[in-house]
Amino acid sequence: MKLKAHPENPLEWIALKMNLAPTPLVDTQVAYNAARAIMAAAELGIYEAIGKDQKTAEEIAGACNTNTHATKQLLNCLVGLGYLSWSGERYSLKPKYHKWLLKESEANLIGKLRFQLIEWNWMAMLEDYVRTGKTLQLHSSVNEKEWNLYQEGMRDLSINAAKDLAGKIPVPKNATAMLDIGGSHGLYSIELCKKYPALNSTVLELPYAIESASAIAKRYDTTGRVSYKAGNALTDDLGTEQYDVIMINNVVHHFTAEQNTDLAKKIVQALRPGGIYIIGEFIRANKPGEGGAVAATSGLYFSVISASGNWSEAEMQRWQKNAGLKNEKPVATMTIPGWKMIIARK
What we know:
Elements: H1 10-17, H2 23-44, H3 46-50, H4 57-64, H5 68-80, E1 84-87, E2 90-93, H6 98-101, H7 110-123, H8 126-132, H9 144-166, E3 177-181, H10 187-195, E4 200-205, H11 210-220, E5 226-230, E6 243-249, H12 257-270, E7 271-282, H13 292-305, H14 313-322, E8 326-327, E9 331-332, E10 339-345
Parallel strand pairs: 3-4, 3-6, 4-5, 6-7
Antiparallel strand pairs: 1-2, 7-10, 8-10, 9-10
Helix pairs in contact: 2-7, 4-5, 7-9, 9-10, 12-14
């Protein structure tokens, strides 16, 4: 997936074609103003205030407890961006965004958009990171409020993918035990437990993340077979032949190559014969330019906030293979561009 400037009239088309339009300004000034406006509207409750109705700026400002004049400026921006419609002094949310921006929709991204206001500040460290190589080290840098927003953001990224992938993951026949490392909201565990009635899953989470993560899981778990355990996969004993499935999603970019290699060995010991080890991650391109904007920007982002940045498909398969596992075909989902599950079997 790539992002690019799109002309809105013949003059702009000519300007782009002849390289007269200042595309670096479109890619920066326009892009970051647009991004901030979309996120601010989520934080302020603008989308929810409008709902599926038509509202005046005064009505929306009253519902959000915001300044009417300033609210109107934000609303007008969102009209220009194509998120809202305007007619007769009233604003409405375009129907295509009801799914993504109204809380009544399970697929809504409001939590992730609000969390991105924090990520905005993280990426402001980019210049210092490039100068010094010093990373944020996310898990030692966030407070309780930020953890709550982080967990809700991860829910938003995973709610559709978990349902899609549950039917694609090659879970062993008669599987009964699963370990979900850093499983946060537990949605992947929940969907697999729904599909496989004999399966029980333990979500292994850092102690300070369990409260907010398990609160989200309680909203969705109808199985009663997903539980939480405080711990750290890098230091804890994972046991011997205890699990049929071990999954780790959006975590290995926080670990070094050595840590991921050692973890794979522990996981092999913890898996039962025929069991599978699943790594879910945004994939780093094999060479610069491959994978488009998602691979490029996610690679930079994870480098700023974590120990290593994201990994290539081949690197993750190598950890699994060197630990004694047999690699299987990776599984992808349309709901998270650039993200795959790397699967190997014991």
